């Protein structure tokens, strides 16, 4: 397998610290991973409603190899569990998605959402504090005005660096169903939030009003045939967005055409081969994630078994189709019984749109090189991820005699799954969430 180091320039190694804990609860399970636009920060959200932000270490002359390491920068509680008294429903604190806003000044801003509420957070640094107030003491107590006999000019004194996360906006009460995705527009003024049946457009400055731009809810809910699974804005056309459905179709909409984008401009769907039709066809064709390429020319979609690349100018069939774990076709029945068939895997592009990455079971994640058509399966686990070690490609044995370096399909652990991944916007650094563990791998440095 040495050819991979020649053809695929992204064999990754973990930094010296793998971010994890030996014992964990349900609340520790990572539910989203996202790099910011420069890749200097990496945010994770978990089922406990917490957001952890990691910052990349600055390069030093003494230890140039430490440049790729990320350390905890800020941790804060984004969402709390709530209760909807009108519907008698508990609202989980789990963070469904995090999206960074482009950086405008020294502070960082990100959007985080649970099932019902989107919040805008500001993350800022403070290394000075004001002293010498006139109307209050240093501890904040208000002074008696009669004791003030002189006017003082407050001064700024150095202090230990403090990273603060403050909630700036709360966007709530706009979704009846669970929010599955949020996407920031390229105009840097608006974003959209998407639930199972509706897409809402928000202004980042206005919290009490949003515009409904897609509504799939039928007059009679018994007539419901599909739900929205994901949505995203075009990277540089602020009027264009896409959304995917549980039927395996993708709709591209133009907000200039009409205020309500129920009528799409383009419809991407691959007709199913009748030969392959089965009881599970509709379930496995549901799209769990959709992403525009950085160039804006292509779409990538992930369904249960495949990753597909679509050209925006060709609606009738995908440009490329990659099999993620085709060997699971024979196990769909047991995967249905243990609910794994409903797992929602994400997919990501590398910075140049030449390589795709998505997760699988047994803590495997897959990479596909679009130029060479080669692929590799790698594993994120504490056992084989020693610092500075190169990850070895893994292979699943489907039938026949199993080789020494192969793993049998029957011994795959379906409890270990890579659902959430992220790729640095310009470098070969990836973040992979495996249950409560966050693995950060970087390109091999000679």
What proportion strand?
A: 35-45%
Average per-residue pLDDT, rounded, comes to 87
- Largest β-sheet summary: 4 strands, antiparallel
- The spatial strand order of the largest sheet comes to 1-32-31-30
What ranges have pLDDT less than 50 throughout 5 or more consecutive residues? 1-11
Count of DSSP E strands?
32
Q: Work out the oligomeric state of the chains in this entry.
A: single chain
Report Rg.
24 Å
Please state the overall shape, judged from the principal axes of the Cα atoms. Answer: globular
Distance between the termini: 19 Å
What class would the helix/strand composition place it in?
Answer: mainly beta
The DSSP helix count reads 3
Helix content: under 10%
Secondary-structure map:
Elements: H1 3-7, E1 12-13, E2 30-35, E3 41-46, E4 50-56, E5 70-77, E6 82-84, E7 89-91, E8 97-100, E9 108-113, E10 118-131, E11 155-171, E12 181-184, E13 190-194, E14 198-203, E15 210-215, E16 228-233, E17 240-245, E18 250-254, E19 266-268, H2 281-285, E20 289-292, E21 298-302, E22 306-311, E23 320-323, H3 332-337, E24 347-349, E25 355-359, E26 364-369, E27 375-379, E28 395-397, E29 406-408, E30 418-423, E31 429-434, E32 437-443
Parallel strand pairs: 28-29
Antiparallel strand pairs: 1-32, 2-3, 3-4, 4-5, 6-7, 8-9, 9-10, 10-11, 12-13, 13-14, 14-15, 16-17, 17-18, 18-19, 20-21, 21-22, 22-23, 24-25, 25-26, 26-27, 30-31, 31-32
